[in-house]
Amino acid sequence: MTQASNIPFPATRWSLVAGARAASDPARKRAALEELCRLYWLPIYGFLRRRGLPAAEAQDAAQGFFLSLLEEDLFAKAKSETGKMRSFLLGALQRWQRGEWRKGQAEKRGGGQELFSLDVMAEEDSFEAAGPEDETPERHFEKSCAMVLLEAAMQRLEKEQTAAGKWATFHTLRPLLAPLGGQVPLVQEVAAQRLRLTPEALRVALHRLRKRFAEILRETVADTLANPTGEAVQEEMDALRAAFG
Question: If you compute the radius of gyration of the chain from its CA atoms, what whole number of angstroms results?
Fold first, then answer.
């Protein structure tokens, strides 16, 4: 049985597209776009960098792309019956590059507007750590999107565990949950010593945390789909694993 949680599930991914499509208030539509931009900025930025754009131009192009989603109402063109967030964004970006950015229309590349302030150094650090230089733009995009999902699921699990008074256990066992960047492998014996648990109690705690993380990750993946059937969710879970294969 899935564990109940008082932590609200974040309005992310396809639900943001649906909200933007349905919103009649421009402010609500823009708010949905801003959140989508924050979530998927690095996959889009990394794809453009892998396409050969210098950092400043990739930043400008990514900003312009997200603005075009709002200005041209590309949300309305999303096919809700077959939609996958990563496919929708990548396809929209490629069409936008061909139809707008390559024409050199500066106003379509942001025109001096900003959705939010950008940390260029953080972007470059994340971009450099995301994969080898010869990685294809598409492969880089898939891996970056997978990282977005893993990090979103991990953040939700952290909030849930903190609310339950289990932050210390979560913080100690987090490196054993998923292959997220920056985490140092931790042997279970050391974790047991830090938490003052017997080896058996540690294994039980780790099993429960991994199970809950898997449940949250599956829910997070489902939210990237317009029609999250069991088969569709499993297909995306397989794609997520393949991104790190």
Answer: 20
